[in-house]
Fold this sequence. Notes:
Elements: H1 2-19, H2 40-63, H3 66-71, H4 73-99, H5 107-132, H6 136-150, H7 152-166, H8 180-205, H9 209-243
Amino acid sequence: xxxxxxxxxILGFYGLRTATGDYAGWNDRQVITGHVAGDDVGNVVFALHxxxxxxxxxxxxxxxxxxxxxxxxxxxxxxxxxxLALAVTMALSGLWATWVRGSYxxxxxxxxxxxxxxxILIFAAQTIRHAVARRIAxxxxxxxxxxxxxxxxxxxxxGIMAWVILNQGxxxxxxxxxxxxxxxxxxxxxxxxxxxxEIYRAGKRTxxxxxxxxxxxxxxxxTLVTLIGVGGAAAFxxxxxxxxxx
Length: 246
């Protein structure tokens, strides 16, 4: 649900402005460097990066639906290839935007985004390697890891809103994303989901009832925090951007 709202926001905000030629309208508070007059290459890369993010997000969500995997295996395979190709493209374009275009608020935030991009590239390579070798079970594990880190931008926005709501305001945050909470949320946006997935896998393998219960409680807590963050992001970030007149 949260990723579907994110896709609607991307298409409704950036897609509409791109289609109508309102490139300056890209420059809302949710991007660091959007449209820059005279920077044709950077503007094209930004547009592709943002709009393809909607396709990648929708593609990734479709990969997680069991009924689609069972009833339409060919679609699952080709959709997975689309997701993987877009994840790699997004990682490379994100690294380019960060260090060539200078689209970062601080070195710390730039390094965090770069680590996210590097992990996407590594996990994508492992996903492909095991698929080619027909190690399907291992391939699926790496594909899920890829999904977690490729969703870092989404998790970051959800995490910030959950943090602000639960703390009744921004605590440890600042405009340059160098506050202790900013640094923690930035790294947690991909490392925490990744760790949660590994803990979930361990919980499935263990025979200990107490450990299974602990994992269940953790997953329930993370689900609740995610729900709070999705509600906050939808109410205060994504939907208002769609209803504000151009």
